[in-house]
């Protein structure tokens, strides 16, 4: 990728992480992750929440409906990019006891990460086992992000994203050790530090997933690796305000208009000009949310000749006119 398109998207969808729970377990143990994810979305107000679990001691299994269980070892991270309900357990097939998640709401303003203990299906919020007696210890949290106007990354990720410790970069182990230390003994600034560590693990997981994709793979992430489509996407991201035509875009990446059109459909499921329109709306949303420029100025900055044309396109994709959306975003924040 000559242009860092992944960073472009990550920088516009307000990626933000948090470590919420320090979970100690003694076998047999099993915990469900569905209700907690829903609570996290309600508490954070995020459009989308990705649950993740880091195994800092011991091992375990992760499972979602319709897929085989995934074996996890010490140092592994598992994420659920599509927001699936999931089960973490000491052995495959163990059913978690029904959990009452009212305590999550009640404890949302308490210092995080909160300790939780699991044993034989018994959940004890606020309690933790001594490290030496726990069979498995997990750090559990969430990555929140925006889906609208345009976030092509989330749909391109699998339902379960397993990041094994084996094969990780050398910095990952040391950062994981730091996360464990901050979780066991929180100090001033620990919340922010753990949030940034979460985001780093997510970006690393996405990069490793891209590297693992087979050559016949399709989707937005696979498109970034393609010689022609990846270059075309990079051009659109770098110069969204340019008056692009598919002919000019094809000329710059070395494909005919028909060949470029077909390759975009094959990888992304939409033609180049539709992709450009969606990206312009995403860039426009960032300018609306983070700055004070007028809607007319923003329209020009993202490639629209008139404020009215930009406003119509924005409302069609987001559901609100630009000015109303900006007010709503600032009230919610």
Automatic annotation (TrEMBL):
Residues 230-328 form the HTH araC/xylS-type domain. Keywords: DNA-binding, Transcription, Transcription regulation. SUPFAM superfamilies: Homeodomain-like. InterPro entries: AraC_lig, Homeodomain-like_sf, HTH_AraC, HTH_AraC-typ_CS, Tscrpt_reg_AraC-type_HTH. GO terms for molecular function: DNA-binding transcription factor activity; sequence-specific DNA binding. It comes from the Bacteria. SMART domains: HTH_ARAC (SM00342). Gene3D superfamilies: Homeodomain-like. The keyword NADP does not apply. This is AraC family transcriptional regulator. It comes from Candidatus Methylophosphatis roskildensis. The lineage of its organism: Bacteria, Pseudomonadati, Pseudomonadota, Betaproteobacteria, Nitrosomonadales.
């Amino acid at each position: 990728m000559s242009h860092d398109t992944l960073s472009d998207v990550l920088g516009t969808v307000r990626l933000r992480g948090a470590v919420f729970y320090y979970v100690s377990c003694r076998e047999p143990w099993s915990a469900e992750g569905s209700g907690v994810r829903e609570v996290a979305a309600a508490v954070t107000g995020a459009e989308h929440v990705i649950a993740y679990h880091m195994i800092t001691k011991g091992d375990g299994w992760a499972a979602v409906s319709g897929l085989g269980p995934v074996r996890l070892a010490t140092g592994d991270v598992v994420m659920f990019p599509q927001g699936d309900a999931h089960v973490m357990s000491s052995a495959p097939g163990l059913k978690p006891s029904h959990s009452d998640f009212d305590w999550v709401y009640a404890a949302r303003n308490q210092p995080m990460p909160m300790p939780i203990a699991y044993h034989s299906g018994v959940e004890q919020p606020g309690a933790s086992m001594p490290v030496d007696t726990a069979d498995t210890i997990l750090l559990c949290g969430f990555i929140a992000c925006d889906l609208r106007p345009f976030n092509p990354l989330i749909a391109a990720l699998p339902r379960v994203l397993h990041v094994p410790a084996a094969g990780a970069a050398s910095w990952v182990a040391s950062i994981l050790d730091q996360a464990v230390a901050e979780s066991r003994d929180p100090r001033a600034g620990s919340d922010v530090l753990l949030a940034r560590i979460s985001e780093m693990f997510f970006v690393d997981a996405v990069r490793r997933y891209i590297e693992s994709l087979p050559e016949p793979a399709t989707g937005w992430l696979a498109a970034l690796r393609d010689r022609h489509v990846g270059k075309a996407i990079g051009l659109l991201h770098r110069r969204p305000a340019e008056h692009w035509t598919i002919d000019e875009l094809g000329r710059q990446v070395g494909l005919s208009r028909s060949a470029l059109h077909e390759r975009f459909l094959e990888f992304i499921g939409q033609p180049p000009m539709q992709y450009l329109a969606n990206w312009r709306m995403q860039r426009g949303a960032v300018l609306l949310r983070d700055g004070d420029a007028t809607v007319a100025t923003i329209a020009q900055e993202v490639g629209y000749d008139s404020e009215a044309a930009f406003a119509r396109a924005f409302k069609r994709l987001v559901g609100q006119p630009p000015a109303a959306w900006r007010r709503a975003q600032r009230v919610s924040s």
